[in-house]
Amino acid sequence: xxxxxxxxxxxxxxxxxxxxxxxxxxxxxxxxxxxxxxxxxxxxxxxxxxxxxxxxxxxxxxxxxxxxxxxxxxxxxxxxxxxxxxxxxxxxxxxxxxxxxxxxxxxxxxxxxxxxxxxxxxxxxxxxxxxxxxxxxxxxxxxxxxxxxxxxxxxxxxxxxxxxxxxxxxxxxxxxxxxxxxxxxxxxxxxxxxxxxxxxxxxxxxxxxxxxxxxxxxxxxxxxxxxxxxxxxxxxxxxxxxxxxxxxxxxxxxxxxxxxxxxxxxxxxxxxxxxxxxxxxxxxxxxxxxxxxxxxxxxxxxxxxxxxxxxxxxxxxxxxxxxxxxxxxxxxxxxxxxxxxxxxxxxxxxxxxxxxxxxxxxxxxxxxxxxxxxxxxxxxxxxxxxxxxxxxxxxxxxxxxxxxxxxxxxxxxxxxxxxxxxxxxxxxxxxxxxxxxxxxxxxxxxxxxxx
Length: 451
Ligand code: UD1
Ligand code: MG
Description:
Number of strands: 11
Distance between the termini: 26 Å
Shape: globular
Order of helices and strands: HEEHHHHHHHEHEHHEEHHHHEEEHEEHHH
Number of helices: 19
Radius of gyration: 24 Å
Low-confidence stretches: 1-8, 88-93, 248-259
Bound molecules: uridine-diphosphate-N-acetylglucosamine, magnesium ion
Helix content: 55-70%
Strand order of the largest sheet: 9-11-10
Structural class: mainly alpha
């Protein structure tokens, strides 16, 4: 089968695109209609950054997850359309003697079903977290367990556990380093990271859904580079000093470890999971945009995070995927002193809203019980020197620090602003992160070799 033969992927792609549009419409239609039932069931929240107290339906991510998973299930026949046609097609499609009947790709189906299973577990966990407010130490290991089906399937197809060592470190480790079981540990941690990292970069209208939307679009753009387009153009990366090449319309050539068709199929799989996700997130964002009429809850953070872990692992581009999470990685590293108890962590770290000016200001954590330890002081002074936090002392002489989140960093650096401006700043930083990721992945790939 020629690589330039666009026949097999096209029906699946068109179906997936159709589902994405339906998913958008379904979510946009259902949220305002089902919201009141959530409020009645006490799944509601107060918008912390507004003057009004109207209860806003919480956990609307459950509607998004339901629509998303439903469409992924309905998509199964399309994903296997070429096989189904070949096996049980009309008379003309029936194989004649001597021609080998293609075997049903049970393996592909197990990849698909294990992905659905992980998404379902993530939905359940997110919803339970919304209802019961699960403790951090209990909810951290659950996505690791949810990723076991994915890892088993990865193992079954003898998934690669090598990493290409960046050139400057090759004298130590050689060109290829086999991480073996450690690679599986890394992939299971990826699912915990992607699910929780959205949840701690949250709290202003539109933040959760827009992060997921931009990452999903970035993954889609990356996938499109690997499809066998009937037309093509060449991106001259050597002008950027890169040793690798992208042939848009061929397949990305540098360091290709697998047969091309396999690579195409993996990225098609990723597209089929990402297109409906874009539809769902866009439909939700419509109602979650400032001033929000619906809150995502932890459910949306967990489902979208797990969807990214699924495609990163199953389509074998987990390192490229992590590059799209730059703002989340930064926010997580910055949050560590609060998450691990060196600095007090209030229930909500969202910026502070001033009713009089209508603007957001950095919110603060106060060392109420005891003054900062020496280690905590050192951390905070370093962060203050980098202009990431502001230190102060309140009227009662207690040490205060602006909460360690990227949203507060924006406010420290750019000054007070409106909520809707802050979410736009966040969106810009996410887009800038993705542009940088593409540059590192394809521009610098000759230097660092990530894939
Ligand atoms: C995480 C954050 C917490 C942040 C919260 C906001 C950490 C360790 N935890 O906690 O600091 O305050 O998310 O989502 O970083 N809300 C708004 N506007 C929005 C979205 C949410 O006011 O646009 C408020 C609502 O009151 C809503 C509540 O946040 O009910 C949801 O918080 P929840 O998801 O339960 O917080 P956590 O995920 O535990
Ligand atoms: Mg949350």
